Amino acid sequence: MSVRVVTLPGDGIGPEVTVQAVAVLRVAAASADIDVLVEEHLIGGHAIDEAGTPLPAESLAAAKAADAVLLGAVGGPKWDHLSGDQRTGAGLLGLRAALEVFANLRPVRVHPRLVEHTVLRPDVVRGVDLVVVRELTGGAYYGQPRHRDETTAVDTIAYSRAEIERVARVAFTLATERRGRLTSVDKANVLMTSELWRQTVSTMAAEYPTVSLDHALVDSFAMHLVTHPRDLDVVVTENMFGDILSDESAVLAGSLGMLPSASLGASGPGLYEPIHGTAPEIAGQDRANPYGAILSVALLFRHSLQRPQVAAAIEAAVESCIDNGVLTADIGGSASTSAAGAAVVAALPARRAAAGVTS
Ligand code: IPM
Ligand code: MG
User: Fold this and answer.
1) 279-298 pLDDT, tens digit each
2) What number is the average pLDDT over the span 199-227?
3) Which terminus of the chain has fewer CB atoms gathered within 10 Å of its CB, N or C?
């Protein structure tokens, strides 16, 4: 099998974590007899500097033609003054829309070694294993009208039943494969879109008799997420709530740098990225945590290449690195980005076998 992966390293720490992710991708692919062709393209601030737009047509065409896309991060102080379609984030939003990746999976697990590192009480976070399924191509991020003048600005939250159904279907299905619990998060006591959201998800529940569904309002859910996170299995929610809640859930895992994501559509390439942050203050210093980017490669093998065993091997390799104390600064250690990436590569079964390690 031969696959094409387009990388969009982007800005800030994006390039340095992507280098490590690509190294893991290559070794893991070789061990599974997959030929991988990696092609790098511009996005975000770098694309603005070099091509005058945050999502050059070339990058978009390459991404659409790929089997999977691996993204680093976009944005930074240098481009903060830009507005509207010139914003670095607009490149990412344009890419998500063009690839029609409407379901964004953000799994959150707490490694036992990092339990003591989180700012929350260990008994609250120990054993957390949840997935946020964020709707990614609708809602406030894309709704029209959307404009701004000197004194007024308008954003619109719009959802159709079909848009809600397709992302809810991903979440229900995931719940059947996991612990059978789905929490749908909305603001149905205020928003019309949330009324439709709740009604649509409720109606679908009959099709999934093994899933127990409950609904939560986003404000109290935000509290629940950090007070009783172990209750949660799969969480499904609209674009903006999912953005906020997934950063909040990163607190459970110990660092934003730990969390991977997969953005999937009905067909076409999946988009894989750490859940975000360009961390400009440490960019270029070889200090960023590459594990979120590397775990995104695991998701790439699972969802785009249908190789769950390779995915599991990468996840196990990251776990063993953490077990062995290979920790970057954000998770309480002093390992460099490149040392952490090299440690994952060394812990992959292919490398261990080559080195004669048998257990
Ligand atoms: C994320 C990020 C993006 C988003 C930004 C960079 C546009 O915060 O992937 O969560 O809001 O979706
Ligand atoms: Mg975000």
Assistant:
1) 999 999 999 999 999 999 99
2) 98
3) C
Q: Spot the catalytic one: 11, 67, 187, 208.
A: 187
pTM: predicted TM-score of the whole model, two decimal places? 0.95
Reply yes or no on whether the pLDDT at 89 is more than 80: yes
Model confidence band, residue 349 (pLDDT cutoffs 50, 70, 90):
confident
Position in ligand 1 atom list of the atom nearest CA 247: 10
Is 137's pLDDT higher than 80? yes
Q: Are 351 and 345 in contact (CB under 8 A)?
A: yes
Q: Which residues pair with 148 in a beta bridge?
A: 153
d(CA 303, CA 293): 15
CATH topology of domain 118-253: Isopropylmalate Dehydrogenase (3.40.718)
CA of 160 to the centre of ligand 1 (A): 22
Determine the average pLDDT of the residues in 121-150. Answer: 97
pLDDT tens-digit series, residues 100-116: 999 999 999 999 999 98
Ligand index nearest the alpha carbon of residue 142? 1
Query: What DSSP letter does each residue of 219-230 carry, written as one string?
Result: HHHHHHHHHSGG
Supply the pLDDT for residue 351. Answer: 67
Q: What angle do the packed helices 308-323 and 337-347 form, to 10 degrees? A: 120
Domain boundaries, the chain: 1-106+256-359, 118-253
Output the CA 276–ligand 1 centroid distance in Å.
6
CA separation for the pair 49, 72 (Å, rounded): 17
Helix (H, G, I), strand (E, B) or coil at 211: coil
DSSP 22: H
CA dist., res. 306 & res. 36, Å (int): 14
Identify whether the C-beta of residue 277 lies closer than 8 Å to the C-beta of residue 268. no
Same fold, 1-106+256-359 and 118-253: yes
